[in-house]
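Issue: ligand-bound run for pyridoxal-5'-phosphate - logging full I/O for the record.

Environment: standard queue, default settings, no custom constraints.

Inputs:
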Amino acid sequence: MDYSDRDGHIWLDGQLVEWKAATFHVLTHGLHYASSVFEGIRVYDGIAFALEQHQRRLLASAAALRIDIPFTVDELCAATAKLVSELGVANGYVRPVSWRGSGSIEVPGFDAGSHTAIAIWDWPSVFGNEARVAGIRLGTSRWRRPDPATAPTHAKAASNYAIGTLARHEVAERGFDDALLLDWQGRLAEATGANLFLVHNGSLHTPIADCFLAGITRATVMELAEKHKIPVVERRIWPEEINDADEVFLTGTAYEVQPVRAIDDKVFSPGPVTRVLQDAYQAIVRRVEG
Ligand SMILES: Cc1ncc(COP(=O)(O)O)c(C=O)c1O
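Outputs:
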């Protein structure tokens, strides 16, 4: 399946265009210099979860890269909701993306201009339904999350994802489902598209998000943990502490609450704390009272 070869429409700069016609020129600043930011949003039963938060983060990421987007959060939310209903997507994924255009092909992007698009497609679970229960295997990558003085680590910027792609290719060769990334100082950071939680003696421990994306799902799960009287500790965590964890899971819009069954050669059983939070997260995204 090629993502360029689908039916339907894509919202591009305020207009609906045919899916296959949503293209740009090869001399585009965003392509050459990774001057691009994006979002990932899930649609549950026809409604995009945390839509406003995601669109606000898109604008914040663009501002971090000094890309001007001539749309407001409300306009982006309205465009998304309209597209979800027009395409009839019940459970799917929304990809808003903004990038510098072809007005300049020099490193300074002053005259490059910008474009914004929103694409939506049906998309079930990332690792499959079996993995939701059994968990996935993480391999520690040699690639690390950089010092925030070196890269726009708080933005959901395309440039940060080059590390994720390299890490995924590296650990896939060793048979792992996803990569665990350390930070620039060798402490635990996150996976390639999700944040990390360790469960120890009934409490959640998660790395301080100061050099990687502080996920919207991470914040939601921390709130859910509080509601369930599960203590949450944000702190610096060294890789050796993996050996003391009773359970490990990842959180992200795409991953949702994803149990981890191994990190390198250390094995875990997805346990009760992960299950409680998995169920609570599904209830909140699907707006089930409880
Ligand atoms: C690198 C990275 N970290 C963490 C996350 C989790 O963020 P969120 O929960 O906002 O989807 C994502 C997914 O967007 C990601 O790509």
